[in-house]
Design goal:
The protein is of the alpha+beta class. About 25% of the residues lie in helices and about 20% in strands. It has six helices and nine strands; from the N terminus they run H-H-H-E-E-E-H-E-H-E-E-H-E-E-E. Strand 8 and strand 9 form a beta hairpin. About 5% of the residues are buried.
Length: about 240
Amino acid sequence: MFEQLLESTTAKKRERNRWAYAISLMIQFVMVGLLILIPLLYTEALPQQQMLSFLVAPPPPPPPPPPPAQQAIKRVVKRVSLMDAGRLRAPREIPREVTIIKEDPIPQEDIGGVVGGVPGGVPGGQMGGVLGGVLGGIPGMPPPPKPEAPKRIRVSSGVQEAKIINKVDPTYPPMAKTARIAGTVRLEAVVAADGSIQNLRVIEGHPLLVQSALQAVQQWRYQPTLLSGEPVEVVTYIDVVFRLF
């Protein structure tokens, strides 16, 4: 009985809380619905510039900067001089490209000659000549000296063999004959201007055959070899053959 007289009973509080919760929920739904419907009904009130900025695609990114220009590569060509201490030496390697140097032709000038002159002469007759001179030089001048002929020449063994006057056959050494040794002894000979053997040098041959070959060739005689009408010394090779029969 006393529960109905008290204002703060639990039964009334529960009923009031339910109704307050329901009313608050309905008010919230109405406000949210109004917030959604008002922009849809009044579209002109929306910020158009901001809406357009949202709909327009962003501009493309700027293009990358161009790459730096490549510097031209300079090729240094090393020129190798073929002169060594004033002498021309052979190149160490074969060049890949051979440059052909073409010289410009020398223009020929029309030089007037002198009446009574010599073909190929110089106007005025000054160069290489004497004023008032005679064709062929000054009379009474001796001819220029002839170049000296070489005192010794080299001749092949076949050519020199055809000039033999006296040929002595070598004696076969008994020891080499017993040992059945045969072969050729090659000598280098200096034939004097009169055709005699002046000097002998052994090039190759068996030691048992060399002495007999030297003794025989020392007695050979040749016809004198003439060069420009004068006898000269000759360097040649002589082959002495030893055969077993």
